[in-house]
Amino acid sequence: MKTVGLTLLIITFFIPPMKTVLTFLVASACCVSAFGEISHLVLRSQGDGAVFRSSEQKAEPVKRASFLPQGQRITVRPRSGIETIGAGYQFRFGSDTSFTLDGKAIGIHDGSIMVLSRKMGSELIIKSPETQVVLAGIGTCMMEVEPNGGLKLLCVLGRILVGSGQPKTRLELLPGELVFAKPGARGLGDRINVNLETVVTSSYLLSGFPNADSLKNSLRNVVRAQKTSIGRTYRAEVGQAKGSNTFEILPIPDAVPEDDFPSAPKPPSYKIPNADPLSELLGRSPKRLPEKEDLRIRQGQAPRPFPTRLLRPE
Fold first, then answer.
1. For 43-57, how does the pLDDT look when each residue is reduced to its tens digit (9 = 90+)?
2. What 3-state DSSP class applies to 224?
3. Whether this model's pTM surpasses 0.70
């Protein structure tokens, strides 16, 4: 009887809330697909979190397990950060970052963000005061608004495709590669390689938030792979951070690009000698040994029986 009562209690009090949660999740997914926008659900708020202006122009705090408002400017407080998920993406917004959500686009007014994409074929629009880019692919990248209004993009994991809005201009970024999106719709700059070990250990967006074991292993592996790569040179290095989550890139003036490295001398091609290959292998002329007759057969002796016949002698 106690078991039956406990079962009825679970059905009465737990099944309806579970149905409500499932209905809510399904409705959220339908909203994303129907309206074509990414709903950012707040997973984590660190420090003092973030605030936004309500319709009454009051500063409202961003609460955990709530959706970020669309079309309103959101500001992350100093020495703070927030983490959100939505439609196959995971986002981290660093301290002193202000941004606005507009459907599938994120307008970054100031500061830096991290984007982790898990969905193949999806595209995300990132806008800055003077330019915008379209991101695709699966991986992790970091972006920061430049003083001139442009964007700085660094690939940390995976493979990120960056489009500048111009026709036939799509750049592929691999781990450790950085590119600048120039202001005024002037396209993308040249790719440069940076030391990921310094970025991973010093960036608040990567090390300041709790990371899953899978992400920790991925970061550890990509840093190890970059350190052990042969012939890799860095044309830039990470300088002093201007803030708790920014990453400053300093060019190395005396760095030699990989394409300018002198190539190693090639050994002369192998030529087939005129001599017999067997003579070349032995180092002397081959000698044929004389065939020897079987003395036992010559003397008329019968061959020894096969071992299985020993058990059944005739």
1. 999 999 999 987 777
2. helix
3. no
